[in-house]
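Could someone model ribulose-5-phosphate with this protein?
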Amino acid sequence: VVRAVTTAAAAAPAIDPTLQDSLKRAVAKRAVELVKPGMIVGLGTGSTSSMAIQELGKLVSQGKLKDVVGVASSYQSRILARQYGVKTVDLNDVNVIDFAFDGADEVDASMNLIKGGGAAHTMEKVVDAMAKQCIILVDQTKVVSKLGLTFPVPVEVLPFAISPVLRALVGLGGVPEIRNALRKDGPVITDLGNMVVDVRFPDGVKDPAEMERSINMIPGVVESGLFVGIANTVLVATRDGDEITI
Ligand code: 5RP
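Reply:
Sure, complex below.
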């Protein structure tokens, strides 16, 4: 069932991880149904995008999608694509990306996004923005009425400039925290060699476009995880088995 959502949905309660995975798989399969032979496809990063890359690989190996090539948004996606038989090309070798799929950490009713939970948002933004059609794949837990109330805004920062950037983020009303590796033995370093700062906004992000601009204007910031005006479609899998497009 596909129906249009015209009003902001409230944040959905957390769901069982197994169910969440099956919802992610469902939207991943839907997304690759939209890929046509010969397309240059932007490959997002994260668990949902990984499932879509796997599903794309299955169709390619069945000979159903001849001459499809991927443009990866991270080393993780590039390695996975190769593993599943999807050829990849460098972003700089293409003039256009026909179609891109990607996940998100939060989505609002205007298709503004928070991305970067996987520390890949800088390259993702370039790939997604270059695509003629960018489709975002989420399960219902990611749909919120206001961005930033539960998920912080990831910001990629030059290590050289970490202190002034942290101060400037506080100046914007944020509570920044340098993202640490799981084993707590140092900061997360992105594919581009930078650090990630997660910025909490106690009252959420009031104006995503303005906040994206303000963050990106701080010298030393490489890119913020606020994505405004990039998604063309958001596909939301719900626990009732519906797929809703925003
Ligand atoms: C990586 C991202 C991911 O798309 C985002 O974190 C969603 O991930 P998942 O599909 O695993 O929930 O922005 O930087």
